[in-house]
Structures are given as C-alpha cells and as structure tokens.
Amino acid sequence: MNDRIRAREVRLVAPDGEQIGIKPLPEALAMARDLELDLVEVADKANPPVCRIMDYGKYKYEAAQRAKESRKKSTNIVIKEMKYRPKIGGGDFDTKTRKVEQFLGEGHKVKVTIMFRGREMQHPELGKKILDHVAETVADVGRVEVFPKLDGRNMIMVLAPDKKAQAAAAKRSAEEDQDGSSPSDPPSN
C-alpha cells in the first residue's frame, strides 16, 4: 500500500474500476494523493503489478461487514440431548419424542440417551426397542446419524435433521389437506 510498493512501474486501475494503463510508481502515487485516496497493490504476481486507487480504510470496513454478514447467515448446529428410561410410560415417551421432533425441525442434532439402572443392564434390547421406536416416530423430520450403541450404563443414538424427509412430509400433509376438504361433501344441517 502506498509507499510500501516496491515496483518501478504499475498497471493502474481507477477507483471506478477503469483501466488507466501502465504508469511509473511516483506518478501513480501522485494521482492517488490528488484524489485523497490510497494506492493499493491488488495483484503483486502480475508483470507489472496491478495497483488500484481506493479508500483502503473503507475497503477494510466493507470487507469486515461482509465477513460479519456471512457469519450471521451460517448456522451453528447445537446438539440437544433427550434422556429416556427403559420403563418409560406412554405419555412421557410421546412428550419427549415430540420435543425431539421439535429440535430436529429447528435444525439441531439430537442425542437420544437411554439410562439403565441396576439390573436393567441385563436387558439392553429394551433400550434398543425404545430407540428404534423414537427413530421410527421422527422419520419424517430426521434420520439416524449414529446408530444405537451401548456406552457404559447408557445406550446412545444420534439423530440429525433430514431436509429431504421434511420436504416430503410437508408435501404429503399438503396433499392430505387438499384431499380432506373436497367440495363434493354434502353440507351438514
């Protein structure tokens, strides 16, 4: 930038992007100073190097804003955890599974854990059955990423959101809504 440029001649580009041509470095620096802007080397490998007249502070600020905007748009995936027990009741199972569906719908991964106590460890198939039932229930919003495996006194499975399955489920429900309210139904009195 400015006095740090070491080339004798530079290919000069105006602030509006117009090619000015090859100029000696002192003349290019003078043109930039006349416009109260900076001379910035943008392609040092070219022969002669390409330099552009620009407001370097404004350029850096805009680049920082673009980086900030791209960070804002990127989604950070959070792993949520839902814990079940082998002897879970039907109502509790439904409530927890609805919450798992909600997390997957929001785009989060969900770690489903079955906690075994005491002699429940003798029957890991009960835990596997529950995890399979959870995976089956949430199949329209998520898919199994890590299949059920025993980890100490817990059995763990990881579910990830599945955009394709969510889109297919939304399409199915839209079609069912259309079929359900057909105009040929007789009016009720």
From TrEMBL:
<dbReference type="GO" id="GO:0043022">
    <property type="term" value="F:ribosome binding"/>
</dbReference>
<dbReference type="InterPro" id="IPR019813">
    <property type="entry name" value="Translation_initiation_fac3_CS"/>
</dbReference>
<dbReference type="InterPro" id="IPR019815">
    <property type="entry name" value="Translation_initiation_fac_3_C"/>
</dbReference>
<keyword id="KW-0396">Initiation factor</keyword>
<dbReference type="InterPro" id="IPR036788">
    <property type="entry name" value="T_IF-3_C_sf"/>
</dbReference>
<dbReference type="GO" id="GO:0005829">
    <property type="term" value="C:cytosol"/>
</dbReference>
<dbReference type="InterPro" id="IPR036787">
    <property type="entry name" value="T_IF-3_N_sf"/>
</dbReference>
<feature type="domain" description="Translation initiation factor 3 C-terminal">
    <location>
        <begin position="77"/>
        <end position="161"/>
    </location>
</feature>
<comment type="subunit">
    <text>Monomer.</text>
</comment>
<comment type="similarity">
    <text>Belongs to the IF-3 family.</text>
</comment>
<comment type="function">
    <text>IF-3 binds to the 30S ribosomal subunit and shifts the equilibrium between 70S ribosomes and their 50S and 30S subunits in favor of the free subunits, thus enhancing the availability of 30S subunits on which protein synthesis initiation begins.</text>
</comment>
<keyword id="KW-0648">Protein biosynthesis</keyword>
<dbReference type="Pfam" id="PF05198">
    <property type="entry name" value="IF3_N"/>
</dbReference>
<keyword id="KW-0963">Cytoplasm</keyword>
<dbReference type="GO" id="GO:0003743">
    <property type="term" value="F:translation initiation factor activity"/>
</dbReference>
<dbReference type="InterPro" id="IPR001288">
    <property type="entry name" value="Translation_initiation_fac_3"/>
</dbReference>
<protein>
    <recommendedName>
        <fullName>Translation initiation factor IF-3</fullName>
    </recommendedName>
</protein>
<dbReference type="InterPro" id="IPR019814">
    <property type="entry name" value="Translation_initiation_fac_3_N"/>
</dbReference>
<dbReference type="Pfam" id="PF00707">
    <property type="entry name" value="IF3_C"/>
</dbReference>
<feature type="region of interest" description="Disordered">
    <location>
        <begin position="163"/>
        <end position="189"/>
    </location>
</feature>
<feature type="domain" description="Translation initiation factor 3 N-terminal">
    <location>
        <begin position="1"/>
        <end position="69"/>
    </location>
</feature>
<dbReference type="GO" id="GO:0016020">
    <property type="term" value="C:membrane"/>
</dbReference>
<dbReference type="GO" id="GO:0032790">
    <property type="term" value="P:ribosome disassembly"/>
</dbReference>
